[in-house]
Amino acid sequence: MNALRPMLRESWGLAMLVAVAVLVNLPGLLDADVVKTAAAALVLAVVVLPWMLFGARDDVAAWFTSTGGRLFVAGTSLAAVGAAEVLTWAPTVDRLLLFAVANAAAVLGARAAARTPRALTAVLAIAGAITALVAVAQALGWERSLTPGPEEIVGLAGNSTRAGALLALVVPMLAADLLAETAPSPRAGRLGRAALIVLVVTALLLTLARGARLAAMLGMVTVLGVALRSWAPVQRRRALRVGTPVLVGVLAVAMVLALVLGGGDVLVADKLPDDGSLVAGTDLTMNVRLALWRGSFAMALDAPLLGWGLGRFPERFVPFREPGEAALPGLGGAATTAEHPHNEWLLALVEGGWLGGLITLLLITATAARLRHRLAEVPDADEAGLCGLLVAGLVLGMVQDAWTSPTTAVPLFAALGYAWSPLPSPRTGHGRERPSIVLTLTTLALAVALAGASVPRLQAHLLLKRFHDTSAVLGIDVERCGLLLDAADADPTDVAVQRIAAYYGEAVLEATGGQPPELARRVARTGQRLEHLAPFGP
Prior knowledge:
The protein contains 21 helices and no strands. It is mainly α. α6 crosses α18 (437-474). The longest helix has 38 residues, at 437-474. The radius of gyration is 24 Å and the shape is globular.
């Protein structure tokens, strides 16, 4: 505990951003990612960015002058060109907000690497432990208050897939920590590390997220490979003789616990169709992914030069959806929309064209080379865990939206910033350059823009939540319809909110004979907005 306090004191910004992006969730929200992105952006604008101007300017420069930072900015900027006509459209705003949050996470990760290297492991371990505790409690039937209606929610991450992805990122960091233990470490500390891995892996298995399981496994293999190749002989021998058997043992215990707790069926019950087809040979989720990948590749071929633009996948993908995938019903039988290709490289191809896809590949390969260089200079447990986390994140990005969902994007970009932080040098210290006045003014302008963009997104979805909470008890009437129209007015660029408000507004007007007049005027205004936004919505 004494060692944890200075880490969190130095890296409070990273802890705050991870807490908001990972742990913020309210029952009944239709889109947890929108709320988390907007909340993280608001915290960034009001708290973190002003502090960066005075306390972390060198860290800002370290990230944006690194090859990784420049490639990430270049790829996003290229994709933004195609979205120039809809920069105020809600999906594009959300992607821009996430771009800002991801860069802030990278800056805070770079700061952690320079000042408190153990902070990244500590912060992610805490977030993973809280998520795992709630998931296990839900599996035991102790905690169901976080379940928003018919949707399943695991931990505080949003759903079983998202929770599994977060836990998959945490596992390699914990594995590296356990492998690197030295003999003099207190027994209580060793037992605590082992218990934490058991808890996190048990929760990961309970989510039944296969991609996350694979990512965690490959992350741990990477950690072991780094340990055998880069660690000092004494540390390597201890990892082989003591650490590896202990790690295998705790994984075995976690597997037994997951089976005892029901194998995860409780946490994903709403995903399983009544006829049991998902567990009887018809792999629905994989078939959906394959359909999305085929459609996304065809979509990328249709705009190979500059792509379709940042955040425009849901809008532009409609003609490329395969009939079988498009016909699958959502929760409650509702029609579904494809919001992401479930593959981040394909998303880069779609949004930024083939050049955008090439930039993403360059970022991956350059980061791999950077990690190899770091391991030659700093071959310790943190670096091994970092390699495992980034490998797990790479795998996750090939099967889901791990790089563009705040729950996993913030930890991943914090790790990316850590990887690209300057290495200590006898001649240049940390090698940091002071940013120009242009960067300072840009940061201030960004803070104002983030606050102005995130507040409407938060307000609209919180009003939407209030509507669903109250209408479930009191029914849909003029007052409840007013909440929906307030949500539509709060963010006029959100097509989904406008559609819901127009649908229920027209239903209430029909039931009340067009009364009251003010409601009729507001519904008409919402319909006009929806007509204007229709070309930009799926």
